[in-house]
């Protein structure tokens, strides 16, 4: 449930290869540098991207370089705060190009004790894909009710509502579809489809296998768009009917979105369209900056000649980040 304004800002991609131990469920606290946001904003911190959005009210969020974040909303209809990976508008990256995506999260107050006048809240992973435009949710926790009303926004929609169940991370999720027309990443009052995976039993901490959900949706005939825009740990809260007085806080003491590997077939060519020598930044798959190369017509050769090693690299050229296989 989102009524977003249209933002076009800079691209940032977070990436890592190791799966993080679930010790974070017991020990995690915020760490690293932080930034406080008090109005709707999309921006970057460290290797992560964040967004705060609300339709009305007095709101804020604190985002940390370790991927964690905390949120405060006052007198809203709908409020979202999230941090993770942003691939960017019209990235041209299918989810199968991204490696295997995971998210770790720890919700500090699973009882939602700060909530007043909140009639729905989603905790989990969230994102958009384009071509076609799809808003997607993986919901591992909620308040006050488990969402089972999804798919009732549009009359006479045969494909809307409950589409089936999938099993991910040892749990059963119900998969819902809805079609709406409202604000989106592509502008105001745009039509788009929503996919929801809703866990049968809620949890407040754990690892979510994002790619397994995408694969599960595909098995039910639900394809994501051809351009992934983002994948972020999400806290959302609001009310319906809208009275403009939902308030509360959410705290994610631990939140990371990461990939275990990169696709060896993802976008092998990555170069400017002219012969102008342009500098591209090169990172390993742990996110370590390795150096710059000249982005000529053959980026693979440029990387191999400089670093003398084959493998998968992440390359940033201008506002785009893409994985490159060097053989």
Automatic annotation (TrEMBL):
Alphabetized GO MF terms: endo-1,4-beta-xylanase activity
Catalytic reactions on record: Endohydrolysis of (1->4)-beta-D-xylosidic linkages in xylans
Entry EC number(s): 3.2.1.8
Matching InterPro entries: ConA-like_dom_sf, GH11/12, GH11_dom, Glyco_hydro_11, Secre_tail
Any one of the GO BP annotations: xylan catabolic process
Catalytic residues (UniProt): 135 (nucleophile), 236 (proton donor)
Signal peptide stretch: 1-21
GH11 domain ranges (all copies): 36-249
Database matches in Pfam families: Glyco_hydro_11
Keyword vocabulary terms for this entry: Carbohydrate metabolism, Glycosidase, Hydrolase, Polysaccharide degradation, Signal, Xylan degradation
Pathway info: Glycan degradation; xylan degradation
Enzyme class: hydrolase
Stored PANTHER family: ENDO-1,4-BETA-XYLANASE A-RELATED
NCBIfam families found in the cross-reference section: Por_Secre_tail
Sequence similarity: Belongs to the glycosyl hydrolase 11 (cellulase G) family.
Entry protein name: Endo-1,4-beta-xylanase
Source organism: Fibrobacter succinogenes (strain ATCC 19169 / S85)
